[in-house]
């Protein structure tokens, strides 16, 4: 197979319990590219495009919305730029380049 799989669970350092406890709330995550605010959400009637896999996140799917906490543009601009991710895509975000 020529396709190289570079799955490295970057979020593996966080124990599942921590995620469980923070479910429904907002948490802060250190990433390779800064600090991110991550919120667990479930969309009601909107479909989002996941930047991780470019697939749609259909209504009713629990996923995360993330924005950069220490963005240079400021918190307001960062909120504008927030993105919706599949949970699995978000957790393996660190292996993206
Ligand atoms: Zn995805």
How many strands in all?
Answer: 6
Number of helices: 3
Quaternary organization: single chain
Distance between the termini: 22 Å
Number of domains: 1
Shape verdict: globular
Low-confidence stretches: 17-22
Listing every helix as H and every strand as E from the N terminus to the C terminus, the arrangement reads: HEEEEEHEH
Measured as a percent range, the helix fraction is 10-25%
Largest sheet: 4 strands, antiparallel
Bound molecules: zinc ion
* Class by alpha and beta content: alpha+beta
Fraction of residues in β-strands: 25-35%
Q: Please tell me how large the radius of gyration is.
A: 14 Å
- What value does the average pLDDT take? 79
Q: Going across the biggest sheet, name each strand in turn.
A: 1-2-5-6
Element layout with pairings:
Layout: H1 16-22, E1 26-31, E2 34-42, E3 48-49, E4 56-57, E5 62-68, H2 75-80, E6 83-85, H3 87-91
Antiparallel strand pairs: 1-2, 2-5, 3-4, 5-6
Bound molecules: zinc ion (ZN).
The site of zinc ion (ZN) has 6 residues, from loops.
Structure description:
19% of the residues lie in helices and 30% in strands. By secondary structure, the protein is α+β, with helices and mostly antiparallel strands. It has 3 helices and 6 strands; from the N terminus they run H-E-E-E-E-E-H-E-H. The structure holds zinc ion. Zinc ion (ZN) binds at residues 50, 52-53, 55, 86, 89.
Search tags:
97 residues, alpha+beta, two-stranded antiparallel ribbon, globular, binds zinc ion
Summary?
With 97 residues, this protein is of the alpha+beta class. The protein is built from three helices and six strands; from the N terminus they run αβββββαβα. The protein has helices at 16-22, 75-80, 87-91, and strands at 26-31, 34-42, 48-49, 56-57, 62-68, 83-85.
């Amino acid at each position: 197979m020529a396709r190289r799989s570079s799955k490295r669970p970057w979020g593996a350092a966080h124990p599942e319990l921590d995620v469980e406890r923070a479910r429904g709330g907002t948490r802060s995550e250190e990433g390779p590219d800064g600090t991110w605010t991550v919120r667990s959400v479930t969309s009601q009637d909107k479909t989002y495009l996941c930047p991780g896999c470019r697939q749609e996140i259909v209504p009713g799917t629990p996923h995360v919305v993330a924005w950069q906490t220490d963005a240079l543009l400021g918190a307001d601009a960062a909120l504008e730029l927030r993105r919706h991710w599949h949970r699995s895509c978000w957790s393996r975000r660190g292996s993206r380049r």
